[in-house]
Design a protein that fits this description.
Distance between the termini: 64 Å
Order of helices and strands: HHHHHHEEEEHEEHEEEEHEE
Strand content: 5-15%
Shape: elongated
Number of domains: 3
Radius of gyration: 23 Å
Strand order of the largest sheet: 5-6-8-7
Largest sheet: 4 strands, antiparallel
Number of helices: 9
DNA sequence: AAACAGTGCAACCGCCTTGAG
DNA sequence: CCTCAAGGCGGTTGCACTGTT
């Protein structure tokens, strides 16, 4: 038995909306709102349309402040960045682009942006790709990560493309405004890190999550995510900690961070405080470094150029050649 | 000018989630 | 809990428009 239709298909108009229908719907909603019931709305508004169709027409076309027309470079960057992080969750992406609808973004991605980026990647010689990344060869726990549903899972790179791994430090590139020509290595890294177990099995660290909502940072570049098991409790322990971007999913704490909203920034207004999870500078919430260290590990200093995505672990014994702590992230100096 | 191919986008479909009863 | 209607969402379709031969 199939699913019951949402309306009587034989009795509703389909296809493109006429200006008269648009006017009726707009007038009705502006006067009465939707009353939380789209199904009943068309009849009340005198429209021979399915409620779902009315909803779609309103959300995608008629509601105020809808932006039509070309996407700006900044919007391109945001879309790419978010797509790289969360995949085809168009409504989440649209939420970060005022005036744009999920449908618009989806169409734009499928018809233009994807091709644009594929074109860029095609002109990069494959020898520039990092074909293998020897990250944590012995620490990557099974099962191996499955390929992401989207082909291109990251489009950005840093100005530093160093990928170095030894037993003390790891440098890699994440985040920037430039289109990426070595997507594969970055993908591998991100996927590997998801399965990197640290200290104990409860401290599973995820980096560059693709399965949870993300944010974009104030400079328009991408941000990445850390998921740190059992941290909801600690987050609460901090007290005033009210992160602007986190989700409670499967009892994990998810923290957005990235370029422009560094874990630790020298440019923070308050000394010895850290900005975490934000979309804009104004949204950034600042927390005492010492408290955050307890939460996520050692923080790094920013390089002053918004090029630092460093994240330090809570392991006193692991320091790099600079005497800094074992970290994941980018540093250019 | 006509035929055909390619493109863009509005609208639809159907699955999944949510929440009220 | 369970059920089910309604909303939300991502994937897909169909058609109008534009470009090319």
């Amino acid at each position: 038995m199939g699913r019951a239709p949402c309306c009587d298909k034989s009795n509703v108009k389909r296809g493109p909306w006429s200006p008269e229908e648009d006017a009726k719907l707009k007038q009705f909603i502006e006067k009465y709102g939707t009353a939380g019931n789209w199904i009943a709305l068309p009849q009340k508004a005198g429209l021979k349309r399915c409620g779902k169709s009315c909803r779609l027409r309103w959300l995608n076309y008629l509601r105020p402040n809808i932006k039509h027309g070309d996407f700006s470079d900044d919007e391109d960057r945001v879309i790419c960045s978010l797509y790289a992080n969360i995949g085809s969750r168009w409504s989440s992406i649209a939420a970060q682009l005022p005036g744009r609808t999920d449908n618009d973004i989806k169409n734009y991605w499928n018809t233009k942006l994807k091709k644009k980026l594929m074109g860029l990647n095609n002109i990069i010689p494959s020898s520039n790709y990092n074909q293998r990344s020897p990250f944590f060869p012995s620490q990557i726990a099974s099962p191996q990560p499955q390929p992401q549903p989207h082909m291109i899972s990251s489009f950005f790179r840093d100005t530093s493309n160093a990928v170095v791994c030894n037993n003390k430090s790891i440098n890699f590139s994440l985040g920037s405004n430039q289109y990426c020509d070595y997507l594969q290595s970055q993908d591998r890294l991100v996927n590997s890190l998801k399965y990197c177990t640290l200290k104990d099995s409860n401290n599973l660290l995820m980096f560059g999550g693709t399965d949870v909502a993300s944010c974009f940072s104030s400079d328009g570049s991408c941000s990445h995510q850390m998921r740190y098991e059992k941290e909801i409790k600690k987050e609460r322990e901090i007290g005033n900690c009210n992160f602007s971007n986190y989700e409670e999913t499967h009892q994990n704490f998810i923290l957005d961070y990235g370029i422009g909203n560094n874990i630790i920034s020298q440019h923070d207004e308050k000394p010895n405080h850290v900005c975490l999870g934000s979309n804009t500078q104004n949204d950034q919430l600042q927390y005492d470094v010492e408290q955050v260290k307890q939460l996520i590990g050692r923080g790094s200093g920013s390089d002053g150029n918004n090029n630092n995505n460093s994240l330090f672990f809570n392991d006193e014994n692991k320091t790099d050649e600079r005497g800094m702590y074992y970290y994941l992230g980018t540093h250019l100096n």
